Amino acid sequence: MALDDKQTTSERQTATRMCVGCRQHDRRDALARVVREPDGGSVVVDLRRRLPGRGASVHPNLKCVEAAVRRGGLTRALGASAGVETLIESLRAQYEARVAGLLLAARRAGHLVIGTDAVADAIGARSVHLLAIAEDARGRKAELLALAEAANIAAVVWGERAQLGKFFGRAEVAIMGVRDEGMAEALRDATDSIASLDGMNRFAEDA
Ligand SMILES: [Zn+2]
């Protein structure tokens, strides 16, 4: 942990780990860390890479998690294993929490544009890097997606209008735009991971 704290951003970006599922090396940030709990019996997900103990990395997708458990890669790396469903559920919960945390952080930092009209203006001004759209958004969703596509802005689908509304103290929120490029990228990674864990593509391009 102390070592990680001392690493520079560029070191973090170039650090690689091997996935215990597919056995390919990848950027550390593209992999999820799992650790064996000190009691030795259980395996827990540690997305923030803060927990002590013996750790392994796995791609946050259904295929790699299944392979890691069923082909014994996890057991070889940790001396302990877990059920596929338990791991998928835990990974999913942590990525969901990450998305929520990123949206709230973007809001606090003034990097989030909320609501259809504000987002339409921001797209026009090319000031957003990503659209985040509620799963149950209706209304101008198709129009905004077409605008975003024309402006070459990616979009992700996450959450529900009422849930997002609660986050931001409104009755409901159907669409948001992310101004900060780094936050947009992190949000894409996290929502992509959730889709991969589900084994389906939830990207808005297909909606
Ligand atoms: Zn993998």
Characterization of the model:
With 207 residues, the protein is of the alpha+beta class. The protein folds into 2 domains: 2-82, Hypothetical Cytosolic Protein, Chain: A (2-Layer Sandwich); 93-206, 2-Layer Sandwich (60s Ribosomal Protein L30, Chain: A), CATH 3.30.1330. Helices cover 46% and strands 16% of the residues. It has 9 helices and 9 strands. It has helices at 2-6, 9-14, 62-70, 73-78, 84-108, 116-124, 141-150, 161-167, 181-198, and strands spanning 16-18, 25-27, 32-36, 43-45, 55-58, 112-114, 130-133, 154-157, 175-178. A 4-stranded mixed β-sheet has the order 6-9-7-8, sandwiched between helices. Strand 1 and strand 2 (25-27) form a beta hairpin. Residues 1-5 and 201-207 have low confidence and may be disordered. The chain binds zinc ion. Zinc ion binds at residues 19, 21-22, 24, 59, 64.
> What's the CATH H-level superfamily name of the largest domain?
Ribosomal protein L30/S12
Small-molecule components bound: zinc ion
Largest sheet: 4 strands, mixed
**CATH topology grouping of the largest domain:** 60s Ribosomal Protein L30, Chain: A
User: Which CATH architecture of the largest domain?
Assistant: 2-Layer Sandwich
Q: Regarding CATH, which class of the largest domain?
A: Alpha Beta
